[in-house]
Amino acid sequence: MQIVKYNLKYNIPPHFIISVLLLLCSPLILGLGNLNRFETAKVLEMYVVLVGIIMITPIFLPEQNKDIRDLLSTKALNMAVVYGIRVLQAVVLVMIMVSIFVAVLKMGNCDFPTISYFFGTMAGILAIGGTGMVFYALADQVVVGYMIPLLYYLISYGTKDKYLGKLYLFSMSDGRVGEKLYLAIVGILFIGLGIWIRCRKSLR
């Protein structure tokens, strides 16, 4: 319970605030009213998914502080559990944000399948956030963790599904929602792999 409270009080707020501000700015950047399903998919896939980088990638960031790292090393804590709790909290908050955003789109008279687009957006968020986690764990540098998923985003944008196939980030914009299952699976695997790599490194 202490881990949950500490994370909510000290670790999550900066990332949560940035994510909320990003979403609040969306009406100034994008039109959110009277969109068809393809236009709505673009908003969700090309804009909302960015909160995955902000919220999920920096799961290991507290340990960059030597004092916190030393403190955790003195306690009988399973770090995989600590990281798992952080991921779960981040994902729950992201789900709440996406739910509210989807509700706003619906109130704006946008025409799209609510449930499938919600889960499709979450799949993209898990994939892009999980990618950041893996490379953060490998490089032990949060900057790398941010850069690689952004590169993944740009490759998806520039080449479409030519090279990425089923892992193309913007398939909903092309009318293909089913492919999001692959993104969800890869995202969950990458999150688990990132935690495993980080725990292995902490044992050295």
Write the layout of secondary structure elements.
Blueprint: H1 2-24, H2 26-29, H3 37-46, H4 51-55, H5 66-74, H6 79-107, H7 114-139, H8 142-159, H9 161-164, H10 180-202
Largest sheet: none
Task: Give the overall shape.
Answer: globular
Q: Helix and strand string, N-terminal first?
A: HHHHHHHHHH
- As a percent range, the share of helical residues equals over 70%
Beta content comes to under 5%
Tell me how many strands there are.
Answer: 0
Radius of gyration: 17 Å
Category by helix and strand content? mainly alpha
Residue-averaged pLDDT, rounded? Answer: 91
Q: Helix tally?
A: 10
Spans of 5+ residues with little confidence (pLDDT < 50)?
none
Q: Distance between the terminal alpha carbons, to the nearest Å? A: 28 Å
